[in-house]
Design a protein that fits this description.
671 residues; 25 helices; Transferase(Phosphotransferase), domain 1; binds ligand 6BF
């Protein structure tokens, strides 16, 4: 049954929603070939309406930009109704949340982050782009705690180069430069420097320099360029903030000077090195070797295909393998090569094995027995996205009606977008108490440059209001060019909906106990407390969970099959004697499911996840299943109901093979 997600599911296993808002939803996903995590930004074309060109601008920008502090684009996929952008996964979340959690950052830490921000921005400027929406919500942290700049939907590449004036006013009001809110022509680079000044201030103070609930009053403060200077700021950092927050753009420090500012270069012998550390012309030898085996191409052919940089499955596999290698993991594809048009060898197989000497030895003996038609890969031509034919069409009413995920923004926002002919909005004089959500207008105490002590609001009190303020739209002539609607819905990563997303019921057929085999429990038991899903929606979710618990308890097993499970099924006491169970450590059920399927894929099995279960399949040369079994994450029976266990169940195949395969997966998975 095709779903709106069908093409992306050929290459990725989609998981829960990380963030949503505006016209995009971002989901965590696993790349099937490498097992690497990615963030998939899903946009609905119909809902995008007049904003569609901005997506194209964003895609073009992100294809060009390759930098250690810019979020990497791996793949672009398009269907009649949706656009999918596969992006670098940044598990640390937003810098915004990081600052809020710490109130404000110590100067040393702020310096580390700010160097990275300046290097990313200097780099994008040399590539001819201005970001125009720099704010801590658009800086994410990767697993090594490095910042990655996201959201190039508002970026501009002036045709005449970076010296060319721009006129569209965009971004978040609190971070917008005075010349921009005045509707003057402005230089993108100068406006980005101002936003970076606001960002540096927010990092070290935990509130914004210019803040007011009333947008008119906020703009007046920005135009005056007056802000408080808290006493904890060092003289050098105050100097840097002052030169960045110069109202006159011509007196403002430029990026080149910024790279040498004494506060930034403290302890360094040289200016900040903003150059990219990545060179796409040097294709990595190990990645080529691995990919040429998998895709059954000669190394040279493989290099040429990669160098097309089509941002299809090949580009993604290359970048993700390279990531794996950089992190010190084996540069390996986890799925065996399979027979599909994508894999039609251009060279006899013997030729490849000759060329790739040594590598075949690393593959399991039975690798070629595992080839089967259940390939997750399709002909690249079908799904690949040629830059030149990136044509975005409209979907039919039927498709729109059938698509439950199409648009998650509030109705008034949808309407507003459709009416927004000019992409300019003017603050309504009536709109005085409206707060912008994230990207809004934070700030707090300390000295004002004028010497007056003002009351300001910490960042954390300035986030995510539930309903956005109505933003009136200029339809006819746009006399004043002001803010463009805030795109991020601000629902944040932990709405109740996010928690529920992707969870379903795993309902294996009931089997007679006689066919089940026991796994040595003593060897497998790992221990510990079950951890509930983390996050701020914990309380809300907790109460839903309790109610669901009660409901599920009331349901008969047959009803349970069709209901939506919000959490793993609880085993009965008797199950322990009959079933193979491994008790896991303090991981969430979703995490365990993902570990199990990753591990099974490493063992050359084909996996399908459903709810809290994974169905694992081993196939013969003709694709016929030789072994089929289920692994299901369950809550242990009381009094151990705070523990999660993995219950294994054989569906088809030899019991000895089954036992061995289960043990292998359970042992290998990091539980
Ligand atoms: C490019 C937009 C993106 O996201 C958060 C996490 C993981 C990955 C944080 C919380 C679990 C992991 C508990 C918009 C809403 C978050 C960011 C959203 C936009 N363009 C991304 C990439 C997001 C992207 C890449 N990784 N992540 C991400 C974010 N969490 N802990 N706010």
């Amino acid at each position: 049954m095709p779903t709106p997600y069908t093409p992306i599911q050929d290459y990725y296993q989609l998981r829960h929603t990380i963030g949503s808002g505006g016209f995009a939803k971002v989901k965590l996903a696993h790349h099937i070939l490498t097992g690497e995590k990615v963030a998939v930004k899903i946009m609905d074309k119909a809902a995008l309406g007049p904003d569609l060109p901005r997506v194209q601008i964003e895609i073009e920008a992100m294809k060009t930009l390759t930098h250690q502090h810019v979020c990497k684009l791996y793949q672009v996929l398009e269907t009649d109704t949706k656009i999918f952008m596969v992006l670098e996964y940044c598990p640390g979340g937003e810098l915004f949340d990081y600052i809020v959690a710490k109130d404000r950052l110590p100067e040393e830490e702020a310096r580390v982050f700010f160097r990275q921000i300046v290097s990313a921005v200097a780099y994008i400027h040399t590539e001819g782009y201005a970001h125009r929406d720099l704010k801590p919500e658009n800086l994410l942290l990767d697993e090594a705690h490095n910042l990655k700049l996201i959201d190039f939907g508002l970026c501009a590449k002036p045709k005449g180069g970076m010296d060319h004036q721009l006129s569209t006013c965009c971004g978040s009001p609190a971070y917008a430069a005075p010349e921009l809110i005045q509707g003057d022509e402005y230089l993108g680079a100068e406006a980005d420097v101002w936003s970076m000044g606001v960002l540096l201030y927010a990092l070290m103070c935990g509130f914004l320099p210019f803040d007011d609930d009333n947008v008119g009053a906020l703009y007046r403060k920005i135009r005056k360029g007056q802000y408080e200077i808290p006493d904890w700021l060092s003289p050098q950092s105050v100097d840097l903030i002052n030169v960045m927050l110069q109202v006159n753009p011509k007196l403002r420090i430029n990026v080149k000077e910024l790279l040498c500012h004494p506060w930034l270069t403290e302890g360094l012998a040289e200016p900040i090195d903003y150059r990219t550390k990545y060179n796409n012309n040097n294709i990595d030898e190990d990645c080529i070797t691995e990919m040429s085996i998998h895709f059954k191409k000669s190394k040279n052919t493989m290099i040429n295909i990669i160098k097309d940089w089509k941002y299809d499955d090949i580009t993604a596999t290359y970048f993700l393998l390279l990531n794996k290698k950089r992190r010190g993991k084996p540069c390996r594809i986890l799925v065996p090569p399979v027979l599909s048009p994508r894999h039609a060898p251009d060279t006899p197989l013997a030729d490849i094995t000759d060329k790739v000497s040594g590598n075949m030895a690393d593959l399991p003996d039975d690798i070629f027995n595992l080839m089967g038609p259940s390939t997750p890969l399709k002909d690249s031509k079908k799904n690949s996205n040629k830059d030149e034919d990136f044509i975005i069409g409209r979907r039919t009413r039927k498709e729109r009606d059938n698509d439950d995920d199409a648009d998650i923004s509030p109705p008034e926002e949808k309407k507003k977008k459709k009416d927004d002919d000019y992409m300019f909005v003017r603050p309504d004089p009536m709109y005085s108490s409206g707060r912008y959500r994230r990207g809004g207008t934070p700030a707090k105490h300390g000295k004002v440059a004028t010497g007056v002590v003002k009351h300001t609001t910490p960042l954390k009190d300035r986030r995510r209001s539930k309903t956005p303020p109505p933003i009136p739209v200029c339809r006819a002539t746009p006399p004043i060019k002001l803010m463009q609607p805030i795109k991020d819905g601000g629902a944040g990563p932990r709405s109740v909906d996010d928690n529920l997303c992707g969870l379903g019921t795993f309902s294996p057929e009931r089997r007679t106990p006689s066919v089940e085999r026991h796994i040595d429990m003593a060897n497998l038991i790992a221990s510990s407390e079950k951890r509930r899903r983390p996050g701020s929606a914990k309380k809300v979710f907790g109460s839903i969970e309790k109610r669901l618990d009660r409901m599920i308890g009331l349901l008969t097993p047959s009803k349970r099959k069709t209901s939506v499970a919000e959490e793993p099924r609880q085993l009965k006491k008797g199950d322990l004697d009959l079933l193979s169970v491994k008790i896991t450590s303090s991981l969430s059920a979703e995490h365990i499911v993902s570990e199990l399927s990753q591990e099974a894929r490493k063992k050359y099995m084909l996996c399908k996840e459903k709810g809290f279960g994974v169905r694992c399949k081993r196939v013969d040369a003709r694709g016929k299943p030789t072994l089929l079994f289920d692994m299901e994450v369950c809550q242990m029976p009381s009094p151990q109901s705070n523990l999660l266990g993995v219950r294994c169940k054989r569906v088809k195949g030899d019991t000895f093979d089954y036992k061995k395969a289960c043990e292998d997966v359970l042992r290998g998975a990091k539980l």
